[in-house]
Amino acid sequence: MSDKPYDLLTYGRSSIDLYSSDIGAPFEEISGFGAFAGGSPLNIATGLTRLGKKAALLTGMGDDKVADFLLRFLNDEGVETKLIPRIPGTRTSAVVLGIEPPDRFPLVYYREYCADNAMTIDHVLAANVSQFRYLEISGTALSKEPCRSAAFFAVEEAVRASVPVMLDLDFRQDQWHDARAFGVTTRALLPRVNVAIGTEEEVLATMLTDPNQITVQHQQMSAPEIRGNLDDAIAGILKLGVEALIVKRGSDGASIHLPDGSAQVVPGFPVEIVNVLGAGDAFATGFIYGFLEGWDHYKSCRMGNACGAIVVTRHGCANFMPYHDELFAFVEEKGGF
């Protein structure tokens, strides 16, 4: 058992997520929305707390009612919120999302004057990274200053305190002035990261040099199509010094890639998909839980796959993360790890 007061610190974006109430309806025909808490680091902190761990969220929020909404949710969930600054002159982020199974999940971000992009090095210093067992950074936090420099500083503080770091690549093309800038920035951080995690598209984006490799989906999908050699991209990331790269492969589960060139496929748990948005955050939640329990990469990925499988059968993200007992019951029902 660790003598540290917290298990996990997540760093990056938070938002109010307005999910379509009309599952299957084209975006322009949506008649109403449900309001939920969202943003990848918020989702993961919530998920870990529901699994019995002590998690804190470091994000920026505005002095607005949206922040009040999110803070009430987080406090009710037991996520530590005392590190979250309310930053004057900013707004808490919002996302509007459609749900058109099986493969259309359009989303629109509202991140002008965004509070979480305004986080600073001083906010990181106030968080005292050394009091956590694990640090998770969202790649979108690298897209704008001063949040980007603060993220790099948080990782420096983690390395200094021997706190392992996970980078969720979290590529959101419309948050970057140039898609290639995502790769340049991410590659600069990866040498100080223990575990990197991302989808196949995010892995390709990390090594992207030619913008012609991207086909924008015009909001029809939650991510652009990126062409390239995935094996080369994986090798490129591993050469930067990470201890492991985890590639999320949707219904095919995940794969583990190590610097010695070895790879291992981790099968998923087949379910009927309602909404894939949030599945990646659920996967990270399960994986981090496994790490904190001392499990190996394979078993941690299986737990991640189980979390993701549960969430894709539900309507949203943070509000629908599984609890400890239901997660383990699900795994047992599906045949175990």
Throw out a few tags for this protein.
337 residues, alpha/beta, UDP-N-acetylmuramoyl-L-alanine:D-glutamate ligase, eight-stranded mixed sheet, four-stranded mixed sheet, 10 helices, 14 strands, 33% helix, 19% strand
Short note summarizing the structure:
With 337 residues, the protein is α/β, with parallel strands linked by helices. It has helices at 40-50, 65-77, 121-127, 147-160, 179-189, 200-206, 230-239, 279-292, 297-311, 324-333; strands at 6-11, 15-20, 33-38, 55-58, 93-97, 107-110, 132-138, 165-168, 195-199, 214-215, 225-226, 244-248, 254-257, 263-266.
Task: Outline the structure in words.
It is a single chain. The chain is an alpha/beta fold. The chain has one domain (6-13, 39-92, 113-333): UDP-N-acetylmuramoyl-L-alanine:D-glutamate ligase. 33% of the residues lie in helices and 19% in strands. The protein is built from ten helices and 14 strands. The chain has helices spanning 40-50, 65-77, 121-127, 147-160, 179-189, 200-206, 230-239, 279-292, 297-311, 324-333; strands at residues 6-11, 15-20, 33-38, 55-58, 93-97, 107-110, 132-138, 165-168, 195-199, 214-215, 225-226, 244-248, 254-257, 263-266. Strands 4-1-7-8-9-12-13-14 form an eight-stranded mixed β-sheet, sandwiched between helices. Strands 3-2-5-6 form a four-stranded mixed β-sheet. A hairpin with a 5-residue loop joins strand 12 (244-248) and strand 13. Helix 6 (200-206) packs across helix 7 (230-239) and helix 8 runs antiparallel to helix 9 (297-311). The protein is globular. The model has no long low-confidence stretch (mean pLDDT 93).
